[in-house]
Amino acid sequence: MTPTDALRTELRELLDEVIPSGGTDADTRFTAAQVDAMLAVAHNVDAAAATGWTRKAGMLQRELGRIKSSSTGQERYDFETLKDNLSYALTMAQTYRELAGPAPSQVSQLFGVAKPEVI
Q1: Which of 9, 79, 94, 97 would you call most buried, defined as having the most Cβ atoms within 10 angstroms of its Cβ?
Q2: Taking the alpha carbons of 93, 95, 100, 105 in that order, is the dihedral positive or negative?
Q3: How far apart (Å, rounded) are the C-alpha atoms in residues 111 and 106?
Q4: Is the dihedral of CA 6, 3, 26, 59 positive or negative?
């Protein structure tokens, strides 16, 4: 698929990676080149979103670190767990994969060839 401004914007919205006003793509997890690459290899924007959510799942370990909670005096802060975030990202990837449907080359054929019986 050929990346266009409209497709880039839609993909960023589906990935929850919208560039903040006054910001750049450096303020998101994906550069403009990465967004274009996902769009270029996908057969539709939902397939690109499935790829993007799968990539986001891979980024979570580095972003979340290993701290589960922190407390100071009577204040306690519990952080989201890696497991919960990973599960969410992979669920989103699966949702968009299902919405994307099969790629055109994976569509079943109308006719098939059967091996003849030999006596």
Answers
A1: 97
A2: positive
A3: 14
A4: positive
**What is the total count of domains within the chain?**
1
Is residue 71 assigned to a domain? yes
Residue 111, domain member (yes or no):
no
SS3 76: strand
The rounded distance, in Å, linking the Cα atoms of 14 and 11 is: 5
Specify the pTM: 0.71
Instruction: Give the integer Cα–Cα distance in Å for 21 and 52.
Output: 22
Assess if residue 116 is contained within a domain.
Answer: no
Q: Which domain holds residue 85?
A: 5-101
Show the tokens assigned to 47: 């397939």
Bridge-based pairing state of the strands 75-78 and 69-72:
antiparallel
Distances from the Cα of 108 to the Cα of 23, 48, 103, angstroms? 45, 22, 11
The reply to whether 33 falls in a domain is yes
Euclidean distance between CA atoms 40 and 47, whole angstroms: 11
